[in-house]
Amino acid sequence: MKPKFEPNAEYQPKDFSFKNKKKVDEILARYPSNQARSAIMPLLDLAQRQVGEEGAKAKKPYGGWIPRAAMDEIANVVGQPPIKVYEVATFYSMYNLAPVGKYLIQCCTTTPCWLRGSADIVKACEKELGTHLGETTKDGLFTAIEVECLGACVNAPMVQINDDYYEDLTPENMVQIVKDLKDGKKVSIGSQQGRRGSMAVEGPTTLEDLAKKEKVV
Ligand code: FES
Predict the structure, then answer these.
(1) How many whole angstroms separate alpha carbon 214 and alpha carbon 137?
(2) Cβ–ligand 1 contact at 133 (below 6 Å)
(3) Cβ burial 190-215 (10 Å sphere, 16+ → b, else e)
């Protein structure tokens, strides 16, 4: 479970303003002017990314989340009462409504991932981070949470870290990913076994000629 929305918590900043006004206008322009509330979701995403960009440069880093002040600003921008924005933000799991680490590790534990060992991935993660699910490491770098299916079951088990998927995990390569992120090293995303998309590990089993022609093998 992700950390819950506490509108009056001490960590909530007093105000928020969008830095990229051009982007705000661009988002609003996608919808008829009498349907500006349709822009709530992309504006929430924009706010979360702005906070994340600021957090990545902070002395004690933190990740993207959406303060209550940002939701109030969005309500103002789309001409709706704040509750209409809170309703949307609290419904969808991709919006973080409380501070998180610079790297948010979303561990999928739904049935296909679970059958392929997600419990061991979670355990390895918790051990390496020294935290439990839902907690943030003291250095502000990591928060690991449990989530439902992220739609990459064919390469289970997997986790999502910020915007990227890491698939075909083992406890060992999960630990290595965390270590590399901690050290600021480049980490390869996608399958950790090197398979292409969701192709079989040993290569294509059908349409082999086409796969060669398209240079996917
Ligand atoms: S069950 Fe984990 S991605 Fe679907």
Answers:
(1) 44
(2) no
(3) bbbeebeeebeeeeeeeeeeebeeee
Structure tokens at 102: 């610079």
pLDDT tens sequence across 34-64 = 999 999 999 999 999 999 999 999 999 999 9
Is the shortest distance between the CB of 109 and ligand 1 below 6 Å? no
Bridge partners (DSSP) listed for residue 144: 105
Domains recognised in the chain with CATH numbers: 21-91 (1.10.10.1590), 103-191 (3.40.30.10)
Pocket mutation for ligand 1, best pick of 115, 153, 161 (most atoms within 8 Å of C-beta): 153
Stated pTM of the model = 0.91
Which alpha helices (DSSP H) does 58-151 contain, by range?
A: 68-78, 82-91, 111-115, 118-129
Cα gap 39→23, rounded to integer Å: 12
Q: Give distance in angstroms: CA of 155 to centre of ligand 1.
A: 8
Half-sphere exposure of 117 (CA within 13 A, CB side): 15
